[in-house]
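User: Fold this; tokens only.

Assistant: Input:
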Amino acid sequence: MISSYLTNQSQLDDHTIHLLFSANRWEKRSLMEAKLKSGTSLIVDRYSYSGVAFSSAKGLDIEWCKAPEVGLLAPDLVMYLNIPPEKAAERGGYGGERYEQLEFQKNLAKYYEKFNDPSWKVQ
């Protein structure tokens, strides 16, 4: 359902897609915990911060967006690659997904900035 939504093959309410992304993170929680306990380091692309940033950038209440994430594993470190949206738009295949639109990406960057704390490394 998520893939179909991202490629514009289906439509979902913004609340619904937010909860589906969160449910996907919850689905993988026990596997992630097991990997960490076994000594495996995890590098995760676009985790909870991303879900909250994208949904709040669409106009959903930021506190509502954070609520389904409570209890998920917290990262030890967040690496945020601060790439200007105009530069990202130069990538091959850009525009193939729903949120790959220059104006949305410019707005989204403002929401990511709200989460920046000492655990973040901005590059």
